[in-house]
Design goal:
The chain is α/β, with parallel strands linked by helices. 59% of the residues lie in helices and 13% in strands. The chain folds into 3 domains: 40 residues; 43 residues; 172 residues, Ribonuclease H-like superfamily/Ribonuclease H (Nucleotidyltransferase, domain 5, 2-Layer Sandwich), CATH 3.30.420.10. It has 12 helices and 6 strands. Strands 1, 2, 3, 4, 5 and 6 form a 6-stranded mixed beta sheet that branches. Helix 3 crosses helix 4 and helix 11 crosses helix 12. This is RNA exonuclease 4.
Length: 284
Amino acid sequence: MSTTQRQKQFDRNRSRATNTASGSSSSSNNSNAAVSTKNVVSPNQRKLQTSMERLQVQQANTSRRAAGSNWMAAAGGGAAGSENQEASVESPPLTKSARMRIKKKAQRNRYLAMDCEMVGVGHNGQDDMLARVSIVNRVGQVLLDKHVKPRMEVTDYRTSVSGIRPQDIANGEEFDAVQNEVVKLLHGRILVGHALGNDLAVLSIRHPFDDIRDTSRYKPLCKLVSNGHTPSLKRLTMAVLGQEIQTGEHNSVEDARAAMGIYNRIAADWEKYLEKKRHQQQHF
């Protein structure tokens, strides 16, 4: 082999070696780059990993119910979560004035006065039938005032006393409906009135005896006003309240208010009298 040929062969071998070395170097670089690329975490992946770690911490440290609330908040239910938190917060305590208003309202409606107007049925209108019923509270506010449809033929409207006319009860309400309203209203209340036995009878209802304050049967008042006899409501109202009622046709609202006014004027003495009687009955 000549010198020129040897030189060419050397150059070929050297270029092959260079190419091989560069190839191995590039492959190693490529593998290193792949490894490094594989180890590099993108910003989005880093955020996802952080949020997952936080979620795992929440679930591990909260109860199931709280976890559900947190999950709803994370899923976009923050408004619902805040509403639940607000609902769970207890309402603030009532002020003193608010408590007094509630107490006074309960006291007003604890005592109710009732009066009824009746028409006559049967032979010569001698039997009573309910035509109107009125109920007021302790300060005279009307809680119920209704006319009642007749269940029998009316033979005497007694208009000069009852104030009832045919059209009043013709447009009235059914007896059963009114009776149910009265029963519900009087349940658990102190009933005040004058000659309440007649009113309860015409309504076909009963009321606990201990919860009745009948101005016609309170003995100290009867003794004071009419020498022990049963006084009329008109006479009692004039004697106790200095007011004149029933100057013409009777009005059941006016009569109920009069009975309540009489009771309010002597309520303290009346209740002491009843308490004394109960105490005496317990010892005999």
